[in-house]
Amino acid sequence: MKTERRRHGLGLALTTLALVSGCSKQGAQLGEGSSEITGSAGAAGAHKASRELLKCEAPVATLALVENSSGYTVASSYNLPSSPVPLIRLLAQQSGCFRVVDRAAGLKATIKEQELKDAGILRKEGSTVHKGKGYEAQYSLTPSLSFSEQNAGREVGGLMAKIPVLNKFVAAAEQVKLKEAQVALLLTDNETTEQIAAATGSVRVTDLGMGGLVLGKLGGGSGAGWANSNEGKVIAAAFLDAHNKLVVQVRELMAKDLPPPVATKSAKG
């Protein structure tokens, strides 16, 4: 009888914890869940991009990603990268909605090369570094980020402590965590200064931990960065959600005059 009671109590405890974590399946969904940003983009097209990523049939303009002058609010125990812009730049290029121009480290390197040429350090004849060859950014995209993590374990543990049998599993309940991120993307026409599109993205993920075992796609994770921490993955997913909503608006825009396409081996052939 004692063994049967223990088994019954354990089953009831596990069922209660599952209900606390949410009625839906453990995992993530865009808007309330998560999906990671992966893969690459370039002359070969989008490679291993998220299946959730919405795309355009053709680019509508050249685009520059702009750092938010107000900075980014990140309340996290992880040392995440200071800027989400590189992550969003990958999304913008993978979607095929824009030709992306660099206004960050790549631009600084280009300017440095020109300075070296003007100083007589680099060759002048046959050089591929020329002034006046850069493409203008027809649109600018500015991200906004607000991220918070709330530990719901104490509240859950307090409820379970008052229930016979379940009070033995309070420690496991304290590992239940809610992770949430809210972001926004603002698209501006550089010719008119008009904000022509805006989109928000959000993610909510419930992690259910039991004795150090975390259940769910975003469980575990250690160290820093977007790829190997729960917080980073949640933020990345929120930007993916916002980008998808932005693409819906971008598809309705008339394409601007674009520079020649990037030269590729297949084009030369």
Question: Topology of this structure?
Answer:
Layout: H1 2-20, E1 61-65, E2 73-74, H2 85-95, E3 98-101, H3 105-118, E4 139-151, H4 153-161, H5 170-173, E5 177-189, E6 195-210, E7 213-215, H6 230-250, H7 265-268
Structure description:
The protein is of the alpha/beta class. The protein has one domain (13-19, 29-252). Helices cover 30% and strands 21% of the residues. It has helices at residues 2-20, 85-95, 105-118, 153-161, 170-173, 230-250, 265-268; strands at 61-65, 73-74, 98-101, 139-151, 177-189, 195-210, 213-215. Strands 1, 2, 3, 4, 5, 6 and 7 form a 7-stranded mixed β-sheet that branches. Helix 2 (85-95) packs across helix 6. It is globular. Mean pLDDT is 74; it is low at 17-26, 28-35 and 209-224.
Amount of beta strand? 15-25%
Distance between the termini: 80 Å
What is the helix/strand order?
HEEHEHEHHEEEHH
- Main β sheet profile: 7 strands, mixed
Count of all domains:
1
Approximately how much helix is present in the residues?
Answer: 25-40%
The total beta strand count reads: 7
Protein name: CsgG/HfaB family protein
Pfam family, one: CsgG
Organism: Roseateles aquae
